[in-house]
Amino acid sequence: MADTSIDGPDAAGGEPLPAVLWGGRLVEKPGAEAFAFQASILVDQRLALEDIQGSRAHVAMLARQGIIPEETAGILGTELDRLAGEIASGTLAIDPAAEDIHSFIEAELIARLGMPGKLVHAGRSRNDQVAVDFRLYLKKAGESLLGELAAAITALLDQAETHAGSIMPGYTHLQRAQPVTLGHHLAAWCAGLVRDQDRFIDALARLDECPLGAGALAGSALPLDRENTSRALGFARPTLNSMDSVADRDFALELAAASAILMTHLSRFCEDVVIWASEEFKFIDLAEKWSTGSSIMPQKKNPDFAELIRGKSGRTTGNLVTLLTVLKGLPYAYDKDLQEDKEALFDSLDTARNCLRMFRGMMASARFNHARMKAACTGGFIEATDAAEYLVRKGLPFREAHEAVALIVRDCVGAGQASIAARSLEQLKGRSPLFESDVYAALTPEASVAARHLPGGPAPKEVRRQIAALRRQIRPPLR
Ligand code: ARG
Fold first, then answer.
1. pLDDT of residue 478
2. Rounded CA gap, 289 and 362, in Å?
3. Across the strands, what pairs with 172?
4. 39-119 in CATH: which number?
5. β 167-172/175-181 pair status
6. Average pLDDT estimate for 190-201
7. DSSP labels for 92-145?
8. Around Cβ 256, how many Cβ atoms within 10 Å?
9. CA distance 40 to 271
10. Does 294 qualify as catalytic in the annotation?
11. 420-425: long-range contacts at Cβ-Cβ below 8 A with a sequence spacing of 24 or more?
12. 336 Cα: distance to centroid of ligand 1 (angstroms)
């Protein structure tokens, strides 16, 4: 039998609820199930240390402004430090039955200190409190993510440097297109990751404003010093508008978007890896410790890490859509809907961080099969564009060169030949008299790659220049 009973708002005599900060107004209290439904402690307990940090700054400011006695502020500060230590070391467990982390910390202060604990919340609301906690947490999490990004980019660039001269096919439509180098391909990934880094740096700079003092939505009539708490908490400045401070979550959207874009990059790179790891390609040999086996097929060595990173990109897209959907249509100040913001963004940042770490480990230990990559540059007429550009250099309009080489490719296909170089000079001249014997040297993959040394191109020397430029763009985590 399904349990359909519900201890709704009118449930009397249910389990005792934890102390809430708003008990005075409401005679009837939600039942246990309904209370748990609206509680957020299981998600926002992650903000415990930031909540304490915020309270520490708030209490010190209240004393400076003469709103609470200096001595009481000292007692509160000491107790807040003790609480932080106990939570960090695990000696104080966060009560999973509390309503949220703000109630839990305040209730703990009151339980331990009595009256002084009751002074903390002057001039403050959980609305500005949660906004400040969340931003403090995101600054730290963002810093850590930037560190992981820098490490991943560095590891990839090291591989790109090692393989700057290794020839491989470049693909469009997953068809062999033109020869490139492995270093060129890996540096392409890094160019995307460096922009991801910049997106995070940009978003983190914009969220670096302190909402404390915004109160529930309209500030406070107490003589708070918002500059002081902002500075004490390491923010660049206080937020400008108290309503916006509690209503706004675009900083969360920006980080969720940056995470989703980063994960979309990783997903595509992992798709390359999965293809390269196939028996058909065999371009990459993933380390055994970065592979998994099959429970039934004894021969298997599967690129599960790459596949899982690719798969996990989906949840970051989902989280971004969740946040956008939660925010759309909310009247502009605080609404309880906003409580749904944290779970989504925490998941996106955790996912991005974990995936970056796995991706780095997998790629740093990967080995590449240069012979297979080079061999894949023969057949498939990957040299056709070089043949056309050869004719352009000899003066033929490109459209005519394209046509001449297309006909040569048809000739080859008809004759069962796998490359343009298989045609004799006479046969080539039959399609364009501009062909000379030097064409054969221009059609090797080495010559093809070496010739494309324009900025951005795959020539080894140019790839090394790109790698150096990308290294210079890696930024250390924000302070
Ligand atoms: N748990 C809430 C949240 O995450 C904290 C703010 C609650 N404010 C309120 N007025 N109920 O958004």
1. 47
2. 9
3. 175
4. 1.10.275.10
5. antiparallel
6. 98
7. S---TTSS-HHHHHHHHHHHHHSGGGGGTTTT--HHHHHHHHHHHHHHHHHHHH
8. 28
9. 37
10. yes
11. 420/381, 420/383, 420/384, 420/387, 421/383
12. 6
pTM of the model: 0.94
- Nearest residue to 259 via CA among 338, 352, 193: 352
Distance between alpha carbon 24 and the CA centroid of its chain, in Å?
43
pLDDT tens column, 364-396: 999 999 999 999 999 899 999 999 999 999 999
Q: Which atom of ligand 1 is nearest to the CA of 216?
A: 10
| Separation of alpha carbons 84 and 82, rounded Å | 5
| Domain 136-369, CATH homologous superfamily name and number | Fumarase/aspartase (Central domain) (1.20.200.10)
Catalytic residue selected from 5, 89, 173, 437: 173
Give, in words, the CATH class of 384-458: mainly alpha
Q: Domain segments of the chain: what residues?
A: 39-119, 136-369, 384-458
Residues with C-beta less than 6 Å from any ligand 1 atom: 40, 44, 100, 126-127, 130, 334, 336, 338-339
CA of 272 to the centre of ligand 1 (A): 43
Q: What are phi and psi of 417, to 5 degrees?
A: -100, 145
The reply to whether 136-369 shares the fold of 39-119 is no
User: Does residue 348 have an active-site annotation?
Assistant: no
Task: Report yes or no: 366 and 286 within 8 Å, Cβ to Cβ.
Answer: yes
Residue with tokens 């005679």: 27
Strand partners, 141: none
256 contacts 249 by C-beta, under 8 angstroms: no
Q: What is the pLDDT of residues 285-332, one digit of tens each?
A: 999 999 988 888 888 889 999 999 999 999 999 999 999 999 999 999
**Listed residue (349, 313, 358, 348) closest to 145, CA to CA:** 349
Angle at 115 between CA 109 and CA 119, to 5 degrees: 75
The 3 state secondary structure assigned to 205-257 is HHCCEECCCCCCCCCCCCCCCHHHHHHHCCCCEECCCHHHHHHCCHHHHHHHH
Where do we find the tokens 């099969």? 369
Ligand 1: which of 94, 127, 327 to mutate, most ligand atoms within 8 Å of CB?
Answer: 127
Ligand 1 centre distance from Cα of residue 127 (Å): 6
Say which residue the tokens 């995307």 belong to.
192
Cα distance between residue 356 and residue 254, in whole Å: 19
